[in-house]
Amino acid sequence: MDKITIITFAVPGKAALRGLMMANSLRTFGGDLCESPIWWLVPESRDNFSNLTRRELKRLKIHIHPIRINSEVMKFPFGAKVAAAAQAESTAVGLTESLAWLDLDNIILSQPDELLLTPGKSLAYRPVHHRLIGPTWGEPLDPFWELIHTSCQVPPDRQFQMVTHTGEKIQPYFNAGTFVTRPENGLLALWQDTFLDLYQQPLYQDWYQKSDLYTIFIHQAIFTGVILAKLSLQELQLLSPKINYPLHLHDD
């Protein structure tokens, strides 16, 4: 069984170029983990990579995993990510100890040992880059986050302080761009099921009308609710700030 498998969502074009850069960085700088499997999760309708890209896929030992995504989910911001993650999880059971989601814009500069889950841990995570719609630490949950917690059945004892990459103190709000989980736990299947159940409900659509940020980040808010509902605090493994470091926010 592999120690860790890297998964990401990819389609032809600039996304594929970023994915090739990320894969090349792992193969070059990944040390003992440089040969870890890399899976590209690709919609069946978008598997039309150029011959040059396919040569690079072969050279970098990237495995294409076709996925089926409902057209309505595909149109919704980051809906494809949720579906892709769940399908990868179901495939990975029994093949790998840890499943690491890395968005395509990640670059690996040294052996990524932090991505290996330690015994007893079920999820390795980073907080969000900056707060935006996130819940502020020390204040009651706003109505949006009350809705998330109620919908996902989050127990009241799951609150703790996070610090964003830009230094803001927040209540739990997990970044869905980089995380590591154990496929046998079924966390990503639960994420998909909960997302599909909630994202089109009228109460949530009301929030989409208030700000596009709620539309863009509802997948991440539901991800947070699912984690807090399913996992105890003792099962969570905080990754250091060098993981998923946001270069575009360096000045902040």
| Alpha-carbon distance between the two ends | 41 Å
Going by helix content, strand content and strand pairing, the class is alpha/beta
Strand content: 15-25%
Query: Mean pLDDT, rounded to whole units?
Result: 96
What percent of the residues sit in helical stretches (DSSP H or I)? Answer: 25-40%
The geometry reads as globular
Stretches where pLDDT is under 50 for at least 5 consecutive residues are: none
Count of individual beta strands: 9
The number of distinct helices, counting runs of at least 4 residues, comes to 8
Global Rg: 18 Å
- What order do the SSEs take from the amino end to the carboxyl end, as H and E? EHEHEHHEEHEEEHHHE
Question: What summary fits the major beta sheet?
Answer: 7 strands, mixed
Main-sheet strand order equals 3-2-1-4-8-5-9
In a nutshell, what does this entry contain?
This protein is α/β, with parallel strands linked by helices and about 250 residues long.
